[in-house]
């Protein structure tokens, strides 16, 4: 008995099936279109023009199993970036796994604020620290735009550090980074490998209150709890960041910190950074207009 070929769809049929399935799963129409397009481009290694041509001619044909498996996973809430193993951040393509947070567009605003602050001295050498680096998104994005900068990428997760190192190699930045393991947010002492002084510190710490985690959107609940749980009030990392910056940040160095939550909670974060030590520079809004971070300069 001959094996029957696996059922397949034309390229356009697959695109429409993905788009409709994602809308039924709760995605906005524009988001569903973008995700269906990116998935098929990723699946077959197509650039934008090749994708349009594939839609026109209906080829390559797409196995139905790949369409249905993808939609089942998305209905379960598995993040898109985990399914394809990569995410884009400020134009950089980063490898991601469930060991790290998915880099988000809102965090790009933190990097953009630092770039704007340092626009006047782009050629100056700086050594910076990316606290809780995860995939390396924040630190590597800065290095990609500041060729004379170097960075320490620090995380308590060894799996995250392996991924950050991999991303640094992919982006040709490996010679400008040090990969450091250690716990800054809860350990009583600083990791010994930290530099004596930094010209800048950037951090997206865990800031979700422990009790709020079960109510998070399904996609977020797939992400590592270590990178989400900020303690009973979601504020646990911030006093440690403040103390580290006071001890290790050079005068004039920048401190960029992501925040989240209700306005009262965010106001408490700002109060943890003494104006006698840190000169306030700006509030950083995300793309939705919500307060997402603070930027200071060390006095």
UniProtKB/TrEMBL annotation:
Catalytic activity: L-glutaminyl-[peptide chain release factor] + S-adenosyl-L-methionine = N(5)-methyl-L-glutaminyl-[peptide chain release factor] + S-adenosyl-L-homocysteine + H(+)
InterPro entries referenced in this protein's UniProt entry, alphabetically: DNA_methylase_N6_adenine_CS (IPR002052), HemK-like (IPR004556), N5-glutamine_MTase (IPR050320), SAM-dependent_MTases_sf (IPR029063), Small_mtfrase_dom (IPR007848)
EC number: 2.1.1.297
Top-rank taxon, per record: Bacteria
Enzyme category, top tier: transferase
Protein name in UniProt: peptide chain release factor N(5)-glutamine methyltransferase
Species assigned in the record: Brockia lithotrophica
GO biological process terms on file: methylation
Domain Methyltransferase small residues, every copy: 124-211
Keyword Nucleus carried by entry: no
Alphabetical keyword list: Methyltransferase, S-adenosyl-L-methionine, Transferase
SUPFAM superfamilies: S-adenosyl-L-methionine-dependent methyltransferases
Keyword check for S-adenosyl-L-methionine: yes
One MF term in the entry's GO annotations: nucleic acid binding
């Amino acid at each position: 008995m001959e094996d029957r070929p696996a059922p397949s769809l034309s390229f356009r049929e697959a695109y429409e099936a993905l788009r409709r399935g994602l809308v039924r799963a709760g995605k906005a129409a524009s988001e569903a279109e973008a995700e269906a397009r990116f998935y098929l481009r990723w699946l077959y290694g197509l650039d934008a023009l090749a994708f349009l041509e594939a839609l026109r001619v209906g080829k390559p044909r797409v196995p139905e199993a790949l369409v249905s498996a993808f939609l089942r996973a998305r209905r379960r809430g598995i993040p898109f970036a985990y399914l394809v193993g990569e995410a884009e951040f400020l134009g950089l393509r980063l490898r991601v796994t469930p060991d790290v947070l998915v880099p988000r567009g809102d965090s790009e605003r933190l990097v953009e604020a630092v770039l704007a602050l340092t626009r006047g001295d782009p050629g100056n050498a700086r050594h910076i620290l990316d606290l809780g680096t995860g995939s390396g998104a924040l630190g590597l994005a800065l290095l990609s735009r500041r060729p004379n900068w170097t960075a320490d990428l620090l995380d308590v997760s060894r799996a995250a550090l392996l991924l950050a190192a991999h991303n640094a190699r992919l982006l040709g930045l490996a010679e400008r980074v040090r990969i450091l393991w250690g716990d800054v947010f809860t350990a009583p002492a600083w990791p010994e490998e930290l530099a004596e002084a930094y010209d800048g510190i950037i951090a997206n710490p865990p800031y979700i209150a422990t009790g709020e985690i079960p109510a998070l959107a399904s996609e977020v609940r797939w992400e590592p709890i270590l990178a989400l749980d900020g303690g009973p009030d979601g504020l646990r990392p911030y006093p440690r960041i403040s103390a580290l910056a006071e001890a290790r940040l050079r005068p004039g160095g920048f401190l960029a910190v992501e925040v989240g939550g209700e306005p009262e909670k965010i106001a408490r974060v700002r109060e943890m950074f003494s104006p006698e030590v840190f000169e306030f520079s700006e509030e950083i809004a995300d793309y939705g207009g919500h307060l997402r971070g603070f930027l200071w300069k060390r006095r």
